[in-house]
Amino acid sequence: MDKDNAGAKAIIDYGIAVYFKNPESYTGEDVVELQGHGGPAVLSLLLKSVLSVGARQSRPGEFTERAFLNDKLDLAQAEAVSDLIESDSEAAAKAAVRSLGGALSDAVSDLLEQLIALRIYIEAALDFAEEEIDFLSSDELKHRTQTLMDAFDQSIAASQQGRLLKEGLSLVIAGKPNAGKSSLLNRLSGKDSAIVTDIPGTTRDVLREHIELDGLPLHIIDTAGLRDSDDPVEREGVRRARHEINQADRVLLVVDANDPEPPELPADIPADVPVDIIYNKIDQTGDAVSIDYTATGTATIKLSIKQDTGIDLLIGHLTDSVGFQSDTEGVFLARQRHVDALIEARAATKQAIAQVSNGDMPELAAEDLRRAQRALNEITGEFSNDDLLGRIFAGFCIGK
Ligand SMILES: Nc1nc2c(ncn2[C@@H]2O[C@H](COP(=O)(O)OP(=O)(O)OP(=O)(O)O)[C@@H](O)[C@H]2O)c(=O)[nH]1
Ligand SMILES: [Mg+2]
Question: Which ligand is nearest to the CA of 305?
């Protein structure tokens, strides 16, 4: 009771108190939930009154953290709670609910089961190394490792789709000044967001637009044209452009088709980031609209933004190349850390299999498999450090 109202027993609201007895509550503890009519003033009175009798406000994500610590949810499911609340498309919400229901955790525990079985098999085979039957080159082992690698590939593909649904793909438009980068941003976003002029060096700031292509969230990022400049503002723009290029999931390098010089890849593009080359302004060169693919799946596309020709080829290429299926049935929402852990576990498993099959150091295989196991356990929080937990729950909103 608020001390101003002490003794007066003023009525704040007419509502319901729901008592959840442990362990059947969200957190697994005894919980009382007070439900009122809502509205900030009434709720603030109610909150004040509750705090005055000794309660304190929860930290961000504290309820879910308690649920995790009390084994009501594993870490991947706890993260799905926050991702569900934050999801900004129906597909992302559906995928988050699947993760909350345990789809990602189930995939991980299936991988763990196979991994442990494989480890036991290899360790047993090593113990019987002197016997006549060579377990390590048996068909049984080949079959097991193949099934496990296939399961890894499937989980990685599904979680990468999930990560794309959650975080979107960051597509950075880069290139020399005046090539048509801002025109491309405007065309793809369907908005007049960026200033377009024929003056090279028009864009200095980084501009972002969020769009959806066939259900795939895309962050399109327009950057300053790359060139050396004495102008400090432009130099800062170029520095920011390079920073964005360095963080990109994919880069569209826009080139003026009239430029006689061959396109130059900006040095800041990380080696594993795909780059598509867009020859723009073919209305001036007389080239035909075309798309050619390289062996690695990137494209060279000739188009004209001004005349709106060839843009459909670019859009089709983008949706195809990120391997995003607009049918997201069965996809579970995932975070980058989940994808990274799965990739690490797959790499360690692959190494273990190589150790066994080339017969070099089969004893090391067991250690590699243990490393894979640790990576998988990090996803569900079986082994996780306080830092990671702190970071994850700090990203939640208060009251969840
Ligand atoms: N002829 C022709 N002109 C185009 C085409 N696309 C863009 N332009 C023109 O090219 C000029 C530069 O376009 P922007 O989109 O501002 O180029 P940018 O790459 O963003 O340039 P900076 O911001 O200076 O780096 C503008 O005058 C556009 O109208 C095209 O397909 N054909
Ligand atoms: Mg521009």
Answer: 1
Does 173 score more than 50 pLDDT? yes
List Cβ neighbours of 74 (8 Å cut-off, separation of 6 or more): 68, 102, 105, 380, 381, 382
Q: Number of structural domains, the chain? A: 3
Question: Is there a contact between 220 and 229 (Cβ–Cβ < 8 Å)?
Answer: no
pLDDT for res 1 = 43
Do 128 and 46 belong to one domain?
Answer: no
Compare 275 and 363 and report the one with higher pLDDT.
275
Q: Are residues 368 and 309 in the same domain?
A: no
pLDDT at residue 303 greater than cutoff 50: yes
Residue 400 pLDDT = 85
Mutate to test the pocket of ligand 1, among 173, 176, 182, 183 (most ligand atoms within 8 A of CB): 183
Q: Is residue 329 part of a domain?
A: no
Q: Is 143 helix (H, G, I), strand (E, B) or coil?
A: helix
Q: Domain of residue 48: give its range.
A: 3-57
Q: What lines the ligand 1 site, CB under 6 Å?
A: 177-183, 196-198, 200-203, 224-225, 280-281, 283-284, 304-306
The model's pTM is: 0.72
Q: Do both 145 and 188 map to the same domain?
A: no
Tally Cβ neighbours within 10 Å of residue 367.
Answer: 15
Cα dist. 335→100, 101, 360 in Å?
Answer: 13, 16, 36
User: Ligand 2 centre and the CA of 209: distance in Å?
Assistant: 14
Domain CATH code at residue 125: 1.20.120.430
Same domain, 135 and 49: no
Is 147 a residue whose pLDDT tops 90? yes
Average pLDDT over residues 143-149: 92
